[in-house]
Amino acid sequence: MFSRSFRARLTWFFIVIVVLPMVIVTLALFKLVADSERGKSDAQLSQAATSAKLLFGEHEARAAAAGRDIAGSAALAAAIAGHSDQALEARLAAEARRVRAARVVLELDGRGRQASGLEDAVAGATTTLKDPEGAPVGTLRTSVTTAREFAAAVQALTSLDTIVSGPSGVLASTLPAVAAGQELPEGGDHRLGDRTYRLTTLTAPAFEGEGSATVRVLFDAQSKRKATQTSRIELGGLLLAFLVLACLFALTLSRSLQMQVQRLLDAARRLGSGELDVKVPTEGDDEFAALGGEFNAMARQLQSRLEELTAERERLQHAIRRVGGALATGLDRDALLEIVVSTAVDGVAAATGRASAREAPGGPLQQRASVGEDADLDAVLDAVEEEVLQSREAAEVARDDAHALSHPLRPSDSSTKVAGLVSVARRGRAFTGADRDLFNYLASQASVSIENVDLHETVQRQAVTDELTGLFNHRRFQEVIAVEVERAKRFEQPLGLIMLDLDDFKNVNDRYGHLQGDQVLREVARILLDTSREIDEPARYGGEEMAVALPQTDLEGASLFAERLRARIESLEVPMVRGGDGVVRITASVGAAALPQSSGPDKDALVQAADAALYRAKRLGKNRVVKAG
Prior knowledge:
Blueprint: H1 6-71, H2 74-81, H3 85-98, E1 103-108, E2 112-117, E3 121-122, E4 125-130, E5 136-143, E6 145-146, H4 147-158, E7 161-166, E8 169-173, E9 188-192, E10 195-205, E11 212-220, H5 221-272, H6 287-328, H7 333-347, E12 352-358, E13 365-371, H8 378-391, E14 395-399, E15 402-409, E16 420-427, H9 433-463, H10 474-491, E17 495-502, H11 505-512, H12 514-531, E18 537-542, E19 545-551, H13 555-570, E20 574-575, E21 583-584, E22 588-595, H14 603-619, E23 625-627
Parallel strand pairs: 22-23
Antiparallel strand pairs: 1-2, 1-5, 3-6, 4-5, 7-8, 7-11, 9-10, 10-11, 12-13, 12-16, 14-15, 15-16, 17-19, 17-22, 18-19, 20-21
Helix pairs in contact: 1-4, 1-5, 2-3, 6-7, 7-9, 11-12, 12-13
């Protein structure tokens, strides 16, 4: 099948060993490029969808706050009581302007529907209106954003085009090619105008009527395809250039080997013809001996290189496992620092490393991760970290044969505050410039990762905390009371609950303004936190009403706690926020209830019992504590 000539065999060898693998590698790289680009676009689209969902929830929360504000308006209550639809419509429009609502829809029992604002509102929230006796009289649906504003906000946040649709069709789009009644898929690739987009869809309740609102985030798949094609062309060009160079090298080598073999054949023929003075270069210092020596030397070099590659492969496997660990513990600060220190130690061939961070801004530095502890290197690590804390810049310190590097971890919004340190050390060899660059890069990435963890913890904390008072919000309270009720039933332990309402708080807002009212709420919240035990759960139930869940506390204990709280609030003097003499004083009515004394074993019965006791305290003259039952 193959030619017997030496040159032909070399050609076939080159094709099988070099050309075919390069073709296979080229096809594999092309596929990897395409898969990588698609994965990046899908990840960006998924992240954008998550951001849009969070933004939608934020607008719903703002709408809920605006609805509560309008629902608590005395002027609106007066307009409802006045039985004039025209006056009610005017007041509703005024309230919408006051809270900057995009649209407000009022539905009163027996009086129909009143609406004010733009019809393309989205992200609405419903508030139940109640009369002075607490009976429902209607609902108020509020939105603070329109579809166009929301689409623009999502585009500004994610840099991707956005389409907002309602039950009747498209409400707003950042793409001019989308028509009002155009049918759009839920996901996948779709052509709009002269371009193809990859999209994903979020579904939420519509602002009015039945059906749902949808938010579609679109990624320009056509531009990504062009980028992939460009990458393939560049990669193909590089591989083609490599193949051409390989062919030239193979041709040169083939000719060289052929000449050497020809010289050996000529010498052998001369020897066979009887020229006894000609020696065949097979031993000694001839060409074959030199070739054998070079081959042996090359073999030794290849063995050494193979060992180095094996070590590099093991390091790569460790790095891959660390990356996998980083993905699995992306929100674990200590795990991230452990990965950073391990990577830094391996990357610069250090003997030991450690990372320190502050538990809170302004707090002391505490060691959070360490690798390869070596007590003999602690002194040089302490010295380099001290220099970083003084200069707030990366530093290197050498003592005798010990060398150390340290880099500060800074928040992205600060160039001077040091939130933590990453340090490594070794003996013997000083760190090179490449070592320093790699170490500083890893430490910079660690700063970004730690800041992402802090941001995530901040978002989690804000999701369950009332912004004004610092207490748990209503949603968190409902979660806590449900868990505590189940725990109390399971372990047959009492569970106390108090509901607190500030007496005549509306007069404080009307007389001194809402800033003064906010200050009163903050001071009362501070008293709740100071009075509560570590296991208690104080929360802002809504408006000026607050609640405290009291685990392992019976009705008598809850009543005593409520009385201490009431007395402290009665003695509270809140300074005027706008300056001047005088203070604001306020009292509170408190209802106390407990399991198992409440009428039912669930959280709703417990809350209802405490709430009923609170309103009895109100009816009995306020500024008092009333026990349920």
